[in-house]
Amino acid sequence: MEAFHQIISNMLTHNLFPRFQQKLSAAGGEAHTVDTFDQAADTIATHAALSAKSIVVPPHFDERPLGAHLLPLLRVRGIAIIEAGEPASVADAPAGLTCAELAIAETGSVLLAENALAARVVSMLTLTHFVVLAADKIVPMLDDAANVLQQLTREGPDQRHYISFVTGPSRTADIERTLTIGVQGPKALCVIVVNKPS
Amino acid sequence: MTDIQRVPELETANPTNENQPFEVRLEHGLADDNMHRALERFAPSWRESRANVLSLEAADYGDDYTFQHLRSQLRAAKDNAIDHQPEVLAQFKAQAQAAGAIIYEARTAEDANAYIYNLCQQKGIDLVVKSKTMVSEETELNHYLEARGITPVETDLGEWVAQLAHERPSHMVMPIIHKTRQQVGSVLSQALGREISREDVAEQVAVIRVEHRKSFLNAGMGISGANALIAESGTVMMLTNEGNGRLVTSLPPVHVVMAGYDKLIGTFAEAMTQLRLLARSATAQPITSYTTFLTGPATPGKEMHIVLVDNGRSEMRADPRSKMPCAVFAARPAPTSARPTSRLAVTPSVISIVAPLAWLSRPSIMALKLMQGHKACASVVMPVKLSAPSKSRSPA
After folding, report:
1. What are the DSSP calls for B16-74, one per residue?
2. CA–CA min distance A1, chain B (Å)
3. Is A144 exposed, middle or buried, given 0-12, 13-18 or 19+ CB atoms closer than 10 A?
4. Are B293 and A172 within 8 A, CB to CB?
5. B40 pLDDT band (50/70/90 cuts)?
6. Cβ distance B66 to B58 under 8 Å?
7. How far is A56 from chain B (nearest CA, A)?
8. What's the pTM value of the predicted model, to 2 decimals?
């Protein structure tokens, strides 16, 4: 049953990534699909935003499943991992890395749900924001996300108070409708979808 | 902020200066070729972009995604929230309070402004950052705070330029659509006391990023609006593109949400329908860069206040004419007694000026309905040449 579920889920994912990527690209973001964490680490470490060889992550990121896999692989590649602290210290750091609860194919969005301020500022104040998630976290439609929002906001100790759909980099067209990227938030968004996270 | 006070000479030259009577602004507006060019460029290209983005979605997802279908879905959801407002409101309040939010119900604009000012006073706050809050334009919060020694800084790019120029935003989504890049450069140069490019929009945006970063990190309070108040979970939904909304609601220790009762909606599912229509109708984007869902304060020590603003809305809700389509409603002005603060009678001829803007989206029509009878109405109206719509109408 578990295996069957995995097959169905993979089939769905293979259908969903291209649409997710297409929608995110249209919003000015980039999406990559990789098979393993090793390849995810390669994608991040060789990215132009990593020329300073450092990346900011939420506090205790290595205690989360994705972080536990990814951070050692980044260190091996010579990348310094910096845990986020005060907002001012994160402001305009060249690169930040977070994980997402969900991705939505319909809109090309990733769903971030962090209560801790230091975790949130990584996605708000760094110049290039990397997001890693497992392929089975992509859902087809906003309606699927509505169900997850219901669960995440349910009263209790695990209630998520601050949730964002992030769809591309920060942008404005306020002046003569001229599109300009990177107003208050990141200038680039790079989402990496890992097909075989285990 | 001293920067803001440094540009009084702009005030007299400024055609949309809010201190001038509507008739004077109308005359200035009709004579302003820059504004005509900007709006004539914008109107047909916006219409085309929206049609494109909606037909693409309908092709992908079928008939459920036509504009008409989504619109009637959202209309039903909003009508339901208005019809059952007492229950929807009670649920929203209970859920938001359970999540740790503090709710204040303001009957008038003065009540709302006074509540926020008192909060600042209690906590010794003298710098406030704001993300887009149209209802604070209605209550004239900035004036109220400034008059009492508190500096509010608009952090939406267009709203800030309008604030620096002592103007009101000319449109909810595109606050400075009536300004050229040269005018923006001149406003920034005067406000900052150094020369900022009059041609390079990227440089102008970069300057604003640096200026606002300081305000975000130093402000004691952040004030945001709400695009929806979701009753089932007590969640405030907020859409931004620039990322300023997330900073305003995250960095200062106190967050105040200002929202009209008209933002109440029942469920996340209904909010998703609103999402599908809102950005497409506003900027022809499928979705904005950031859609944020706030359910109570996120961290210990952080405060979240939700100021629900009535300011005439319950009166309007009780009026059967509020259920009529905008044009019919507008053609029958409410009795003067229902519009105590009006500077401008809403007559068919005024609505014909407003109409090209009102067509922009259902939410903007709702807003015009809601603002009818209020001072804010006269301020949101932007003078548009009456012949412009027919000239720019596409042959199709």
Report:
1. T-TTS-HHHHHHHHHT-HHHHHHHHHHHHHHHHHHHHHHHHHHHHH-GGGSHHHHHHHH
2. 30
3. middle
4. no
5. confident
6. yes
7. 18
8. 0.84
Chain A within 8 Å of B252 (Cβ-Cβ)?
A: no
Calculate how close chain A gets to B309, using CA atoms only, in Å. 23
Residues B258-308: pLDDT tens digits? 999 999 999 999 999 999 999 888 888 889 999 999 999 999 999 999 999
Q: What is the pLDDT of residues A31-47, one digit of tens each?
A: 999 999 999 999 999 99
pLDDT at A136: 94
Q: Which residue of A has its CA nearest to B157?
A: A174
Give the one of A153, A167, A184 whose C-beta lies nearest to B295's C-beta. A153
pLDDT at residue A59, rounded to an integer: 96
Beta strands in B246-351 (DSSP E): 254-260, 264-265, 290-294, 303-309
Sheet with A80-83, side-by-side order of all strands: A30-34, A188-194, A128-134, A95-99, A54-57, A80-83
Q: Which amino acid appears at position B28 of this protein?
A: H
Residue B382 pLDDT greater than 60, yes or no: no
Cβ distance A153 to B275 less than 8 Å, yes or no, reads no
Q: What is the pLDDT of residues B168-224, one digit of tens each?
A: 888 888 888 888 899 999 999 999 999 999 999 999 999 999 999 999 999 999 999
Cross-chain residue pair B287–A109, CB shorter than 8 Å:
yes
CB A103 within 8 A of CB A23: no
Chain A residue whose CA is closest to B53 = A26
Q: Which residues on neighbouring strands pair with residue A138, listed in sequence order?
A: A103
Give the three-class secondary structure for B156.
Answer: coil
Chain A positions touching B209 (Cβ under 8 A) are 182-184
